[in-house]
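Data deposition worksheet. Section B asks for the primary sequence of the deposited chain exactly as it was used as input, without tags or linkers unless they were present during the calculation. Section C holds the resulting structure in token form. Section D is free text for depositor observations; keep each observation to a single sentence. Incomplete worksheets are returned to the depositor.
Section A, Depositor: J.P.
Section B:
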Amino acid sequence: MIETTALAALIYYMLRNAAPLMLTAVGGTFTERTGVINIALEGIMTVGAFFAAAVTMLTNNAWLGVLASVVTGLIISYLHGLVCIRFKANQVVSGVAINILAAGLTSFLMKAIFGSGGQLIMGDAPRLPVWSLTKLILGIPGLGRLIQVAIPENWIRFFDESIGSQVPGVYIAFIVVIIAQIILFKTPLGLRIRAVGEHPRAADTLGVNVPQMRYIGVLCSGLLAGFAGSILSISPGASGFMVGMVAGRGFIALAAMIFGKWTPVGAMGACLLFGLSEAVRVSASVILRDLPWMQVIPSQLLALLPYIVTMLALAGFVGRSTPPAASGIPYESEQ
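Section C:
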């Protein structure tokens, strides 16, 4: 039987692993809802992770590192938007080219600035703080005392170990999902975004600026994917940036977006599933070590678990999911 502390650890790592996927998947939802495919999310996460670590080391300020990751994500995504929206290049080819550029650029800058070839070790440089939701709730006058009286202490401790003390990116990711769901489906801006992705000609006829909406979608994806990269490199416990550290998370986020049927809430559910598979891989030796069948499962098979889950999800749901009708199709204005 799984102990409570082990279960709390599993939930903790599930949320921590899911957070960068959620942010990137929501960004992908925005850009694809406007009709632009952004395969470059993997590269944007890579660049964001590098600049977050590099700027944090140079300035000794983790929040400046986060700002750098967001700005570089916006720049890279704008480049993708410029190529695809203004010059109407093939969107998949542009995304693949940016992924290759990101891998080469980070390796070059790491060698040129820090003299390091494959890994940027941050050492004593600061990391992002841990935000305590538990302390915040218990600190509310009246409510905190009521919770301490009504809820057993071990339950409060379980909440703190699993959900209540997390890196900022975890809480921000859930807030972003809620805001994105509201924007896309409850606001005039969201209606314009969805109209541009489904029927750009009709939207243009009604006065919607199609290129502008598509730039907004692409820039949102760059901002969120860049921030997601910073979570990987400068969160507590992270050693810094390493070549290949994104390890396909950008593509997993795209799979989560498809699995979630191009909705932020649906993508969130898929990301939690993928985050759970990664948490099981990381925690299996601790949580499941007493189970007899764990002794015969190769560690390499567990390492493949997140990718196996991704492939199964895509194989089972891609055929049933309908993307925005104009996704991947450059728009030619009649004016």
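Section D:
The mean pLDDT is 89.
Residues 4-33 form the longest helix (30 residues).
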